[in-house]
Amino acid sequence: MNTGDISRRTILLAGAGLAATTARGETTLTAAEVIERIQKNVGVPWNAQTVDRVIAGDPQTPVKGIATTMMSTLDVIQRCAAAGKNLIITHEPTFWLHQDTVDTVRDNAVYRRKAEFIRENNLVIWRFHDHWHAHRPDGIATGMAQALGWENNADAQDPRLFVFPAIPLSQFAKDIAVRLKIRTMRIVGDSALPVRRVIANWGYISQGPGIQLLARPDVDVLIGGEAREWEVVEYAQDAISAGQAKALILMGHIVSEQAGMKYCAEWLKGFVTEAPVQFVPAPEPFERVA
Fold first, then answer.
1. Which of 48, 114, 116, 278 is most buried by a 10 A CB count?
2. pLDDT tens profile 84-93
3. Shared domain check, 215 and 161
4. Residue 174 included in any domain
């Protein structure tokens, strides 16, 4: 199993070569060829420095089925294998670090079990993060707007900004939770705050961009997946204490980008027709206290 960087030379050779051939002489699409098609169709130059690479498995593996997912947890991988999907396209890491490096976990029992399952089931896991965000429009943002029904609320000049008719924050947040079936969404702000202009930062909200977005005078609410409580969360609290009408909604990382990988499955079907493509959702990891 290859858990290191797959070289650009390997991808290019695989893409240029013939598809795998079955005993009956039929051609079968390989994982490397699917990757090459994605690279050609994503619409942006492919960067040499990227997390988008084969994380595990042999790229020459014939593809029986393709699954897209937000996060390739062991549970997700097991469900993909059971569904006959042996190429798994994941947005987030498989081995718990952004770069999917495994040097520090090779002796970890959970790592060994996960790697063993991938190997025994002849699976290929490929990361699709940087270039899916770079796709225009951003693939994650497109899927999230569709899932929330916000396409007509998007600002014409800024696709991250959404305009609403002064909905109370409590109702606005409840609508999101219902649409996305979120159990553990968190909110900072006055529940009666009229929500008119919302800016989205899907996934992790880092300190600098997050503070800049919430500080914009044309923004009432910043919404995203997660943030450190001593960075953007504390800034939101301080902005409210300083008399500003602001709010922060943290949906949870998985649910804040999940619909973007559902959209990815539909996008793939436009140029990959030799194998079935299915979206396999990753479960929200948290539970509410009863």
1. 114
2. 999 999 999 9
3. yes
4. yes
What is the pLDDT, as a whole number, of residue 17?
A: 40
Tell me the two tokens of residue 211.
């503070």
Number of domains in the chain: 2
**Residue 65 contacts residue 84 (beta carbons within 8 Å):** yes
Q: Residues 124, 159: one domain?
A: no
Pairing of the two strands 54-56 and 66-69: unpaired
Residue in 241, 156, 249, 123 with CA at minimum distance from that of residue 195? 249
Q: What is the mean pLDDT of residues 260-269?
A: 98
Q: Tell whether 22 is covered by a domain.
A: yes
Q: Distance of CA 114 to CAs 109, 138, 185, Å?
A: 9, 30, 29
Same-domain check for residues 67 and 144: no
Residues 6+ apart with CB under 8 A from 216: 199
Burial of 46 (0-12, 13-18, 19+ CB in 10 A): middle
Domain presence at residue 200:
yes
Residue 127: which residues within 8 A CB-CB, separation 6 or more? 51, 52, 53, 55, 89, 90, 91, 93, 94, 100
- pLDDT of 156: 87
Question: 251: exposed, middle or buried (C-beta count within 10 Å: 0-12, 13-18, 19+)?
Answer: buried
Let me know: does 227 contact 215? Beta carbons within 8 Å.
no
User: Domain range spanning residue 167?
Assistant: 139-253
Which position has the token pair 């290019």? 12
The reported pTM is 0.89
Q: Which residues contact 148 (CB under 8 A, 6 or more apart)?
A: 176, 179, 180, 259
